[in-house]
Every structure is written in structure tokens, then in C-alpha cells.
Amino acid sequence: MVWATGLLAYVVAVLDRTTLGVSGLAAADRFDASPSLLSTFVVLQVVVYAGAQVPAGILLDRYGSRALIVAGAALMASGQLLLALTESLPLAISARAVVGLGDALTFISVLRLVPRWFEPRRVPLLTQLTGICGQLGQVLSALPFLALLTGTTWATAYVSVAAFGVLAMVLALALVKDTPHGRVVAAENLSVGAVLSSVKTVWLRPGTRLGFFTHMGTQFSVTVFCLMWGVPYLTVAQGQSAHMAGALLTISVLAAICAGILIGILTGRYPHRRSWIVLAIIGSNALVWTVVLALPGRAPLWLLVVLVVVISAGGPGSMVGFDFARTFNPSATLGTAQGMVNMGGFIASLLVMQAMGILLGAAGGYSFDSFRQAWTVQYVVWLLAVVGILITRWKTRRLLAADEERSQLESFEVDATER
């Protein structure tokens, strides 16, 4: 019940996160925004989200999941309500920033509930299920929200989304507990220096950085596609209808669910092969995009389905980064580590989204050729992520080998002393 309530809050967070992606063209008309300015809406939201991850992790370690889930739901509902009622561009941008802040508090707080409420052997699969079931929020934005937006008014659609946020807040307040014993995490009075020292210690662990680069390389492509540029790309550049674009986003969620279950089983069964699974996901993403972008004209529908299915594996693939954080960090700083990992994919996403908006604007707006050029910025991030994964994996393995050697030596010395 606790996990399901937290999961509902995350579903609402994903719904709030993706509403502007499916209403991008309507937002451009409502606020008279160019492609580059429209990308600023989402980029600012993601900047706030990514920038708030480490503070959110520190707060999570001190105050627990319940407080942060409630606060996150309240912030997102407020932001969506403001966006529903305003026609001012500065206020609308500010509203998306508030949504990003609430979103930042939610996911890692829900994820923290899993190791506290379930036995260790079930954690990898349930971590995957948390991430992929949360993507049902994307289905809500692609189907009922988009239907409300096209069938009624902007205000009606966004007020409805704000109401879901209020529901999530009330349920979390009533049902979520930090631990089975109901303990509230004690808020210690830590100095700024102690907090910064703790953050530095967490970041310097190679396993944390391995999770960071894992999240970066796997998550950004599908995030950029679903959060901002997927629907305009499918409708304008590829000539698909708005309903078909929504259907493809729904396929993305279903593909992520299937991939997430498989990845959860594999990472739980073969923990020493997790990085190879991640590298395979990144390679498949780069390959399918290369095939689509190499075509001189529009891709057939079946190839677009393949594209959506393949890049959707990046969502559950990014969850392996949180598994690295859990494996190589103590429980006391796990929230901070998870916040750092979560920054990876969203920093990459915001950079790619902004770069694509600039390139589209420079090319004269939405067209097949401009989108074809804009999507190529992904290859820079994939290269950086793969290099980061290989280096931090090597450092992590070397550290584990040193720890194992030290443990064996200490065991030998104890045996010698006893003899």
C-alpha cells in the first residue's frame, strides 16, 4: 500500500513532466513562442529538476520519503494550476520551474521506499517496476490529457492535471510511512561544511559516478523524445497524425514496461554484468537513430515503431544507475547518491533539448531537414557517457578488488592471532 501510494505520486509527476511535450504546438500558439523559446519552457523545468537533485537527496536523507513526496505533489499541483490560468509568458515559464522543483523531490523519495519496505533480493526488480510503472503518467498525457486539450480548453486540461496532484498529496500524507516501523528520519543539525564534505565523499565513490554516466547515456534520448521534440518530429517531419504520435508514445510506455521487467530480472540475477547491459542499450539507441537519420526521406511507420521501442529501453536502462548507487553507497547517504545519479540523464536531456531548439530555430523552424540535423547532437552525449562508464567501471572494479584483498588479509591476521 505504501509503495503503491508513492508510485501514484510518481505517475502524477511523470504526467506533469510530459504535459508540455504533447501540448507543445498549443503552447506555441497560446504564448506566441518560437521553437527555441518553447524549448526554454522544458529546459528550465529540467534545469531546476537536475539542479535540485543533490539538495533533494540531502533533504531525503534527513527528513524521509513521506515529507518530500507530499511537498513535491503540492509544488507540482501549484505549478500546473498557474500554467492553466495564465497567459503571461514569464509566469508560464515560472510555473514550469515550480513543476520541475516538485518533480525533483518525488522520484528519489519513492525509490527510497523500496529498500526500506522490501527484502534485498527483490529490490532490483521493484526498482525497475517503480520506474516503468511511473511512466504510465506518459500514457495519461499522451491520451486523456491530449484528448482534453484538443476537445476542451487549455485551462480545463491543466486544471484537471493539477487536481491529480492534490489527490496524490492527500493520499501520500495519509498512507505513506518512511519505514515499516513508521519512524521519521531525524533531522540532524549539520553545518554547511559537513554537508558539502558528505556530498564530496559520495561523488568521489566510483560507483556513484558509474551510476551517473549510466543514467546519462541511457535516459536522455527517450526523455528528449517524449518530453519535448517527439510529437513535433513525428507530426511535422515524419508526417504522422497527432493521434498516431500519441499512439507511438503509448507504445513507448509498453515497451519500457517489458524492457524494465527483463532488465530487472537480468540485473538481479547477473549483478556483475550490469554495465554490459547498459552499454548494449546505449549502442542499440545509437544504431537505430543512425538508421532513421540516414534515410533521405520520411521513415516508414514500422521503422518509427522500432525506433520508439528501442529508445524506450533507455528508461529502464537508466534505473541500473540507481542500482549502482545502492550497491556502492551506505544507507545513510543513499538519497544523496541517488540524487547525483538522477542528475546525469536530465543534464544530458536539457542540453540536448536546448541544442535542438537552437538548431531548429537557426534552420528556419520545423522541417524534415532541420529535425534530421538537430537529432545528431545525441552522438556527443553517447560518446561522453560510454567513456565515463568505461573509466568508472574500471575504477570501481579496482576498488572492489582492493577491498576484497584487504578483507582476506584481515581474516588471515585474525586466524593467525587465534592460533
From TrEMBL:
It is a multi-pass membrane protein. Keywords: Cell membrane, Membrane, Transmembrane, Transmembrane helix. The chain crosses the membrane at residues 37-60, 67-85, 155-176, 210-231, 243-264, 276-295, 301-325, 346-368, 374-392. GO terms for molecular function: transmembrane transporter activity. Residues 2-397 form the Major facilitator superfamily (MFS) profile domain. Coiled coil: none annotated. It is found in: Cell membrane. The keyword Translocase does not apply. It comes from the Bacteria. GO terms for cellular component: plasma membrane. The keyword Membrane applies. PANTHER family: CHLORAMPHENICOL EFFLUX PUMP RV0191, PURINE EFFLUX PUMP PBUE. This is MFS transporter. It comes from Mycolicibacterium hodleri.
